[in-house]
Amino acid sequence: MSNTKYSIGVDLGGTNIRVALLSEDGVIQKVRKEPTEANLGPGHVIYKMKRMIEEVMSGQNVIGIGIGSPGPLNPYTGVILDPPNLPGWKDIPLKALLEENFCIPVIVENDANAAALAEAHQGAGKGHSSVVYITWSTGIGAGLVFNGKVFQGAFGNAGEIGNTVLRSSDGSSVGVLEKLASGTAIGIQGKELLGLEENNAGAVFQLAASGNQQAKTIIDDAVKYVAMAVANLTLTLNPSVIVIGGGVMLGNPTLLHELTDIAKTYLYESMQNQLLIKTAELEDEAGLIGAGLLPFN
């Protein structure tokens, strides 16, 4: 067995599981990907995860296993509480189960926090002491990394911005961010207001690009609400950089300029030039790399 230290990173998603062997600098050496088959229950998924870990760690000096998982979860105990896209996962002691099997430390972390760690160390947040990572996709969440470490909060729930309450500037609507601006919310509005057959945010963006004014209003409203969230995070945490990833942002990178301009309008004038927002650089690899960095972090 080599003296070189490696970790195992696990990206546990509702659709796929990815397991990778990573070096100490976060470089993926080997990776496996299989469907999660979450509908078959936690026992089936955990058995598959163990097999995949065994395949990639064979013969290597692995110091620990990091897992990025959908929340809610308790990162201190490693218990998966009740994630909506993992049916039947109620109070599953994933950390304990894997430590018993592999006899090495296991760290379980919210998937947004894992992605934030990767972007802070290797991506758009590299070189910054305080990084807020926002994932803008089917849902909306955030991860916070200060001085290279994930900030989890007293009970592990820091960064759950999708459930923050916002009011439009004219007071006409009140709601939580995720239900106002996520890819799912955009798709629902497209179906209800534009008569689209499916809940498809991509189709709304296509109509907006072709000049459909109603579709453009849906997108503009979503950008406005995310800009509000960015401003609130800036006023609360004053980070050196905010990194935005996820399918909505990465699929429509031209939104960045508009979002930045709107966010500045909610800030003190003295803070406006300090605001730095960047698009994520690691794309789909962020969660996997971040999970692999956890044992070294």
From TrEMBL:
InterPro entries: ATPase_NBD (IPR043129), ROK (IPR000600). Pfam families: ROK. Belongs to the ROK (NagC/XylR) family. PANTHER family: BIFUNCTIONAL UDP-N-ACETYLGLUCOSAMINE 2-EPIMERASE_N-ACETYLMANNOSAMINE KINASE, ROK (REPRESSOR, ORF, KINASE) FAMILY. This is ROK family protein. It comes from Bacillus mesophilus.
